[in-house]
Amino acid sequence: MRHATRRYAVSRTTMRLMRRSTAALSSPRVMQGDFGRVTLKASARSMAAHGHAEYHCVFKLAGADTGFAVGQQRLVLDSDHAIVVNPWQTHAKLDSDGEPTLALALLLDAGWLAGLMGWDRSPKCGVFCQQRAALSPDIRGKVARLQQVMTSDGAGVDAQRLQALRELARAMVQQHGADPAAAPPPLPAPMDARIARAMKAMGAYADGESLGDIAAQVGLSRSRFFEQFRNCVGVSPQQYLRSQRMALATRRLSDRGVAVTHVAGELGFDAPGHFTRFFEQHIGFTPREFQRGLVGA
User: Fold this and answer.
1) Would you list the DSSP string of 120-159?
2) Which residue from 40, 129, 263, 269 has the fewest beta carbons nearer than 10 Å?
């Protein structure tokens, strides 16, 4: 009986924190650093299918339930479950049913997560066995705490945000992840040296350089390059290139003094509007909203 009472009290506290910080949220909030990125935003729109090198955990805070496509699965994000995605798993947010969904999303650098968990190496394919994770009272409280500090300002709040992020990330792995040392997941396929060279070239994206050009540089036909790239990495070359462009875009936009038009030109977009649509399709809000929503890390 005492245990049940304690869980009820935690639940009431959690809901009070969520309501208070939700009411304070008028625009997206973004925290970016060597850990990756944390976003707090409301959206009803779908997002483009994509993959990236980071772990991704999404928690619903308020509003409508919404769907996610992760690989071949169709999953529901609701108040009782998180969506968790391993590196290079293709995924997409689907349209919300009616009202927007307020969500807290963690994009966690694999090396940072390995250091946090004390792993000797960073897992290549990920540690989450299921892509829809039930939320315990402990995790709910940690989600509420991170939401609260993401919408707070003042002395010492940067350190509080990082601590709240560490505690939530650690709890998610402990409760829903596998130990990579005990059962290391295999790569989709052994890495081809030609694909590794192509990935390096795509990481140093050059204006006007097509995927066909990159395939020729590494000695593969376009069709063979696309097939072998997916076998080795788990996503298509187009998805990989888009992830690299998004990573560069968010790094550059983290400097509030850098103009959106300048970043658009750096990434090879003919017009700033094309870059804005690309950015919004992959992160859920515009580049200017990203810059306005930045908080310290």
Assistant:
1) SS--SS-SBS-SEEEPPHHHHHHHHHHHHHHT--STTHHH
2) 129
Residue 233, Cβ density class (10 Å: 0-12 exposed, 13-18 middle, ≥19 buried): buried
Q: Are 292 and 254 in contact (CB under 8 A)?
A: no
CA distance 194 to 197: 5
pTM: 0.85
Q: What is the pLDDT of residues 237-293, one digit of tens each?
A: 988 989 989 999 999 999 989 999 999 998 889 899 999 999 999 999 999 999 999
Q: Residue 264: which of 251, 255, 254, 274 has the closest Cα?
A: 274
Reduced to 3 states (helix: H, G, I; strand: E, B; else coil), residue 9 is helix
Q: Which of these, 272, 269, 267, lies nearest to 252 by C-alpha position? A: 267
Q: Please tell me the distance from the alpha carbon of residue 126 to that of residue 104, in angstroms, as a whole number.
A: 20
Q: Which residues of the chain have pLDDT under 70?
A: 1-26, 122-125, 179-190, 204-209, 297
Cα separation, 63 vs 260, in Å, equals 30
55 phi, psi to nearest 5 deg: -80, 150
* Residue 107: its H or E element: strand 101-108
Alpha-carbon radius of gyration of the chain: 20
Phi/psi at 104 (5° precision): -105, 125
